[in-house]
Design the sequence.
């Protein structure tokens, strides 16, 4: 309150109950909820599109148009990007930010990468997704052995690569 008086107990109780109801209070109920969510995630074979419609279009036609717009993004006006020489690009490390703020940056990076992709007859690409653990993790590296559902269909993970990493680094990465 503005006059330095104590907050009434019923208001504090109401705030605590609302936090608890939405699993925003670190208590036993939250820990049980978290365990259930983790168990559910581990049981699923596919990583679902949890941000579809909120972070990107959930249908492939609109998403394809959005991605094409990002690929066509002009160079930034506030700095001159370094020229990339000719030849094969072995990887691309793109920023980790939502499409609304970083889409044009993604587009410029992927546009350069696409120019240098090997021909389709060379076989499938191995794509590694490096992400940020917003919720924290018990290990510095976390892998998933899940296929990814996307608006373009199911993308399968590289089973031999994951099995090799599992054998080398152990089961705590999953």
Sequence:
């Amino acid at each position: 309150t503005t006059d330095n008086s104590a907050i009434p107990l019923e208001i504090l109780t109401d705030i605590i109950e609302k936090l608890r109801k939405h699993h925003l209070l670190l208590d036993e109920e939250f820990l049980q909820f978290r365990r259930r969510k983790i168990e559910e995630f581990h049981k699923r074979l596919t990583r679902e599109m949890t941000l579809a419609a909120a972070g990107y279009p959930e249908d492939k036609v609109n998403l394809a148009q959005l991605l094409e717009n990002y690929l066509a993004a002009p160079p930034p006006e506030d700095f001159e990007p370094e020229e990339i020489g000719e030849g094969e690009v072995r990887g691309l490390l793109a920023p980790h930010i939502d499409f609304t703020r970083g889409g044009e940056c993604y587009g410029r990076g992927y546009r350069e990468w696409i120019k240098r992709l090997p021909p389709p007859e060379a076989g499938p690409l191995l794509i590694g997704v490096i992400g940020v653990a917003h919720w924290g993790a018990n290990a510095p590296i976390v892998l998933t052995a899940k296929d990814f559902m996307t608006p373009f269909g199911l993308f399968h993970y590289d089973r031999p690569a994951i099995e090799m990493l599992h054998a080398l680094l152990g089961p705590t990465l999953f």
In short: The chain has a mean pLDDT of 85. Strands lie at 46-47, 147-150, 153-155. The chain is about 40% helix and 5% strand.
